[in-house]
């Protein structure tokens, strides 16, 4: 065996194996989905609209003005508060409620089924054929005195 980097011992290389083109994994982090959720409630305005907004702000804020190269940002706080409360309080509360109800009503069913399998059906010998005994006694008249 030579010392070149091109040679791979038999069974140790990936030559001959097709390269799998797997799709990219979705980004499931909370931050990105949260930013996507609040995106409709944040709007950026261009420089022309910024001048009009600054005039309105100057009248109400008494001289607090942002630098001219920064865009104007309009934030709808009610929408952001609702999205935050929904994602952090309402949905987890509903999810916990549904899991709790499900565990209270559905988990006893497999347990009852399993207990029924583990326990013997009849405790006395011959209980399974008692109906047959009663049926034959009706023909023979046994037990009627």
Automatic annotation (TrEMBL):
Under the heading InterPro entries, the entry gives:
Atg43 (IPR013898)
Any single Pfam family the record assigns to this protein: ATG43
Q: Name one GO molecular function term.
A: mitochondrion autophagosome adaptor activity
- Look up the record and give one Gene Ontology term from the biological process aspect: mitophagy
Question: What name does the UniProt record give this protein?
Answer: Uncharacterized protein
């Amino acid at each position: 065996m030579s010392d070149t980097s091109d040679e791979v011992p038999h069974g140790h290389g990936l030559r001959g194996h097709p390269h799998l083109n797997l799709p990219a994994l979705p980004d499931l982090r909370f931050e990105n989905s949260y930013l996507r959720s609040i995106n409709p409630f944040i709007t950026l305005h261009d420089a022309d609209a910024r001048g009009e907004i600054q005039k309105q702000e100057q009248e109400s804020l008494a001289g607090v003005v942002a630098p001219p190269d920064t865009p104007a940002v309009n934030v709808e706080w009610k929408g952001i508060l609702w999205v935050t409360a929904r994602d952090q309080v309402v949905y987890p509360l509903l999810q916990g409620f549904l899991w709790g109800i499900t565990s209270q009503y559905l988990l006893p069913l497999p347990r009852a089924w399993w207990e029924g399998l583990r326990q013997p059906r009849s405790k006395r010998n011959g209980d399974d054929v008692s109906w047959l005994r009663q049926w034959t006694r009706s023909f023979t008249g046994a037990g009627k005195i």
